[in-house]
Amino acid sequence: MDLIQTIIMGIVQGLSEFLPISSSAHLVFSSNFYKIFKGIEIVQNSNQEVFLDIMLHLGTLIAVLIYFRKEIFEIARALFIGIKTKDYSSKDFKLGIYIVLGTFLTICVAFPLSDIAEKLVFRPDIVGVILFFTGVILLSSEFWAKKISDKKEISLKTAIIMGIAQGIAALPGFSRSGLTIASGLFSGIDRTNAARYSFLLSIPIILGASMVYPLVKIDLAEVVTYNWTAIIAGTIVSAIVGYLCIKYFLKFVSKFSLAVFGYYCLIIGLVTAVFFTIYS
Fold it and tell me: Do residues 72 and 203 make contact, with C-beta atoms less than 8 angstroms apart?
């Protein structure tokens, strides 16, 4: 792993974490395409690569924390006041509870899938097939959303569905933002609110993964041997690109449908599945 590779992957992560095209899939693709270009064996189980993936997600976590800092403060404040006064009626308090519940459901679904998800990092052909199905889900949600004229706010039921969807997205190829936004559209939420809630819902789970995974599965003695210059560079790039992506993606979804991302996932998923099947 070198500096150029981590910068490329930082750009990929920053763009694809918030666009509904699966950041995990694109990290798998970019890493394996880079290996092919450099003549490295495509199936190479490297803890450093897994750790880099965690750090790149930490970069996009920093981006979402900075962008939604006001909303995060208001939600935290509402939770504190609500618990103190036992007044649970505020919109921000409910939103905070929904995020906590959604995160719990995400963990319940994602944890049993963690071993499978780690193995898929080295099976880009299968990841391509899963990305294809992400495209199908996005297009289906847009088709369904057009039939719903009465747009709703985030509810308990929607929070449960979106939390489960985020858990399923632990598998590379299933877009976290894609599945959560799509499940919001299926529930009758407009794109902008679904996207904003999707980004807020990502905060606890990315924060948890960034802290827990290195402590549980990474050998600290091995970590010090990693290329930290490259890892830090990739993380910074991921944060900058991620911030810009959030800003402009929210403007995009307020005016346009997600169909273009659905077709993108169909095409890229199919092409990569065929390519890596032949190559391997």
Answer: yes
